[in-house]
Amino acid sequence: MSLFAERVMGAIEWVYPWTDYFLFGGWKIEQHIARPEFRLKNPHGTVMVKGRLAKCEKVFREFKNAGRVAPQPKHLVLMVHGMGRLSTLFQGMGRRLAENGVASELYRYPCPGRSLDVQSNRLRSFLGRLDDVEEISFVTQSYGALVVRTALAENDPWRERIRLGRMVMIVPPNQGSWFADQAHKAKPLKKIVDHDGWSLTAEAAAKIPIPPMPFAIIAGGSGRARGYLPILPGDNDGLLKVEETWLDGAADYTVIPTVHFLSAANKNTLEATIKFLLYGAFTQKLPKQSAVEPSTP
Length: 297
Fold this sequence. Notes:
Largest sheet: 6 strands, parallel
Order of helices and strands: HEEEEHEHEHEHEHHHEEH
Number of helices: 9
Shape: globular
Mean pLDDT: 87
CATH topology of the largest domain: Rossmann fold
Low-confidence stretches: 1-13, 289-297
Helix content: 25-40%
CATH architecture of the largest domain: 3-Layer(aba) Sandwich
């Protein structure tokens, strides 16, 4: 994808008005956030029908009864993107996970103009509608980590039937963001930060509970005293300081040479993520038949 195409797609996804409502066997029902409309999409992303929820559910049942819907995986890895980022950056992640026998799906949600509580409540409702899944793991990028952490803070009924696996946070603002803190101090930007980015301040991020599952963190950085963005103090990925990704209780932690916005597609990120999901550590070697070459990030 060219840089121009990526910017165009990024702008489109920034205003993406749909949120995932239901998932089964790769089939999704999405809900429009501004009007009472739903749409059913097959595993290839084709919209099969749109309209009322009951209509979408009826058509889905027809496909399922006709044997055209795959069984739900017992262990599902849910990938959760960051704020307004390209969902295409997770395509490589999904392919690599599949090559290692791990089923995954991307959870999509609209980003701007919605508080963290709204986003996490939507995810909680989505998880509550998952059927036939016995274990769930998470791979998050940036703001997605805060959405998942906030959602897992509540002991919802689905937790009684779906056990928690492992979680990999890619460039997460676990300690907040220096930029959000600076914007919050500036009066012209304070209102915007309070509405959309308050959860990215250090004060707000500190209130989010630690995930109740084994988790690991992948930070991005240059490996030098100065990171990819010189105006940001210390080593950084161009948006977050390395130290802002840390969270007490992490089972593993690594810093990979990558910029923030491309972190989920970085080959070292893919390798480290698969290792932790399969073995619980970044340093484990993958099987020889794996498509990912074993090494230590």
